[in-house]
């Protein structure tokens, strides 16, 4: 599995990480699955390294539709 290493800041949550990397706050399940040693609390502690799985290209394109993009990126 290819993954990005993300060091958490203060008050980061699973859904904010999913929004940042996938554009979908509800896609946090795959991030939680990639980090079984981390506590599944509402807020992540600052300074923790979180693995963010890299999505296959076909799946990454499916997370954002052109309607979600600003006009200059459509």
List the helices and strands and how they pair.
Layout lengths: L2 E5 L6 H9 L6 H5 L15 E5 L3 H7 L11
Antiparallel strand pairs: 1-2
Structural notes for this entry:
The protein is an alpha+beta fold and 74 residues long. The protein has one domain. The protein contains three helices and two strands; from the N terminus they run βααβα. The protein has helices spanning 14-22, 29-33, 57-63, and strands spanning 3-7, 49-53. The chain has a two-stranded antiparallel ribbon with strand order 1-2. It starts with a strand and ends in an 11-residue tail after the last helix.
Strand arrangement, major sheet: 1-2
Beta fraction: 5-15%
Note the gap between the termini.
30 Å
What share of residues is helical?
Answer: 25-40%
Which terms summarize this structure?
74 residues, 28% helix, 14% strand, single chain, alpha+beta
């Amino acid at each position: 599995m290819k993954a990005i290493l993300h060091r958490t800041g203060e008050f980061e949550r699973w859904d904010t990480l999913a929004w940042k990397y996938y554009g979908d706050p509800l896609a946090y399940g795959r991030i939680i699955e990639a980090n079984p040693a981390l506590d599944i609390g509402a807020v992540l502690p600052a300074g923790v390294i979180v693995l963010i799985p890299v999505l296959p290209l076909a799946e990454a394109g499916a997370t954002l539709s052109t309607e979600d993009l600003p006009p200059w990126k459509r």
